[in-house]
Amino acid sequence: MVPARTPPPAPARRPALPTAAGLLCALVLSGVAAGLIGIAMAHLLEGFEWLFYGVEEGSLPQRVAAAPAWRRIAAPALGGALAGALWWWERSTGGVVSVEEVVADSGAPGPGSPSRRMGVLRPFGDAVLQVLTVGAGNSVGREGAPRLAAGALALRLATILRVDRDWVPVLVASAAGAGLAAMYNAPLGGAAYAVEIVMLTGMRRRGVLLAVPLSALATAVSWWGSGGRASLAMPAAPLTAQALLACLLAVPVAALLGWLAARAWAWCKAHRLPDSWGLPLAIGGAGLATGATSLWLPELPGNGRDAFQGALDSSASAAALAALLGVVVLKPLLTGATLGAGATGGLLAPSFALGASGGAAVAVGLGLAGMSPSIPAAALMGAGVTLAVTQRAPVFGAVFVWEITRGPAWILPPLLVACWAACRITRPSPS
């Protein structure tokens, strides 16, 4: 009788961390990484602004104003053409998987799933291109860069630490919000962005458990580079009857601007030029238009952060009113042209720049009529309402603009109510 053979021993498996321990490690490492990414993106933006405009210090409008006229026109065009050429190559060789695709994937491990295809190098490369585009002066948001890079790194960490599949999309969404929080020094806004915009409905309750600490950690890490300073300087805005009146009148104006901008930008994205050899020419052409308009308004180039600051600092004068109305008209047009040409970029900063300029214009008009409204308060109210409407996210819209300006406490409750009401009124009717 032949003795039974002993089966060979199974290959040794790498021991897995307990579910809670692996998730906690991934959360901490993702938060630290998101904070460092925020620092890196901020320095990269400064470097690109210096490279394209040749001015070492100052805000982007100050650099634009100090640069010679030919450089003000050429910088966005050259930056757009360069980014367009690189995007053409990137998209023709496979493109980039977005954070939203990974979150919608729900962690399914199929061989062709977004979670498997995302990688790290391509998201980081695309993030650099987005920052390059904004640093050159093109009119799109830069918030997509840190959220894409932070989300990709969080996905890689979740894979290495073997985080439970059900928690992977929640972690990726939370890391994306943390990247935004680190970039703008806005932990509550970053968490609200992750929960209200990036996450799917079924994951939002447990998502808060990751989004809040992750954004807080990323923001704390980013203070190493920012010193904890607010993203924008908010002038004094005491509570008065005329300040409330200006805020109240700014709400419908900002809601209408947000509704119109959202529809226009959605149309531009839907009719975007194809990814062909014409991509660098198209994005460069949109940049040329942005550069030409900067000869009149230095606040127009870039993502819109400086236009928001300009609205907060506006005086009650006819010249200030003309500048604000110029931003209201031209900023959404230039952003739509840049997106329609094929650029990748966010809409957060263009949205709050549009709303802030509209709200400030209302207050400046009241000031010219002999009243004493609070222009900064009206600008803040307009920024939050327009951002909430374009993103369909009332809590995020209110909290984010209040946090990046460190606005007065009295304005937050009416701002939340205004954002909620504006989103309810402007929401698409069911078909």
UniProtKB/TrEMBL annotation:
It is found in: Membrane. Its main location: membrane. The chain crosses the membrane at residues 20-45, 167-195, 207-227, 239-265, 277-296, 316-334, 346-369, 375-402. One of its GO terms (molecular function) is chloride channel activity. Keywords: Chloride, Chloride channel, Ion channel, Ion transport, Membrane, Transmembrane, Transmembrane helix, Transport. Coiled coil: none annotated. The lineage of its organism: Bacteria, Bacillati, Actinomycetota, Actinomycetes, Actinomycetales. It comes from the Bacteria. InterPro entries: Cl-channel_core (IPR014743), ClC (IPR001807), ClC-type_chloride_channel (IPR050368). It comes from Actinomyces timonensis. GO terms for cellular component: chloride channel complex. It is a multi-pass membrane protein. This is Chloride channel protein. The keyword Lipid metabolism does not apply.
